[in-house]
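Folds abound. A case:
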Amino acid sequence: MSPSKVTTPRRFELDWLRVLAILTVFVYHSTRFFNLEDWHVKNPTTYPIVEVWNMFSTNWMMPVIFFISGASLFYALSKGGVWQFFKDKTLRLLVPLLVGVFTHATLQVYLERLTHGQFSGSYFQFLPHYFDGVYMDVGEGGNFAWMGLHLWYLVVLFLFCIFFYPLLRWLKGSGQGVLRGLGSFLALPGAAYLLALPLIWSLSSGFMDDPRPGGWSLPSYACFFLGGFIVVSHARLQENIRRMRWLSLAMGMTLMVIYLGVRIQIEWPTPGTLLYSLFYSLIALCAWSWVLAILGFGMQHLNFTSPFLKYANEAVLPFYILHQTVLLCVGYFVVQWAIPDPLKWLAILSISFAAIMSLYELVRRNNVLRFLFGMKTLPAGPAAQAVEPAPAN
């Protein structure tokens, strides 16, 4: 007889938070046409208030996503051995990355070169030049976007899953005592905020500070990723986070006001100074306060499922893969319209969302496209749609 499978209750609040976080990324990128910082395509007029929104959302948006990815991995480690794990991550993360690098990422680079005066001609005339040098950042480097531009998240998540696999597998196996002890310590009153300490050290020391995709360094994302794994391993720690949700929210809001005030008033502090360490301590504690607040409110209010959640949870990875390319294609035309800028933003947001969901409806019905977008293929014949886990699962 084969051993019976142990089923883990699904964490619906993580599913909801994943969906909401990816929608936040979509809204965030829809505003990048209008903030002060350069981007692939820009509106003729930009606004400081949009830059403030961008600074606010950058502080917690990708940290929440990496936290959820680490939390999801805690449950994914129970599903088979190392080779099955590696195969799953390759199919879910690397396949859609490679597809994106050699297909729709070319459109993003083309539109950037076109709008920045670095190329003139049609998209098909640009394609042979896509492999001229390696793309670095907006307006910098060559054209080949080997990380797929916004698909950098898939690269980093794959590297984290593979690099930390031995450690995390050990913590769920013979190292369970260490994981329990760490969780019990963090479950002490107020100790959950000590999760910010490794992040403070990483930021203030400048350890592997480059690159900074999404506004954070790779060691910073690793702190949130591992933090998510640790938090969901301990029930009492999670209960404390749920109970402290209002305190975490108050801390996050207060520290965010201070952070934005400092960012607006002064330049970045000089590395190695006390002000530099204090500044990054503020950023780290603010980010973790928001992550813990979002998780706490999620556990309190989002522990339920619905047909919409099942649909949205399956759509979240293809939606993320498609969203920036569609936004740029739509935005390239809309920013040229002679209408008020708020209406431009609403048009970009609504038209792009409709286009992405229409493309997704094509993807979800075709097994070849499902495979290319990191989704599980459907069995032959009429069958119910499977609930697709997140890319970290």
Q: What stands out?
A: The CA atoms of residues 70 and 226 lie 6 Å apart.
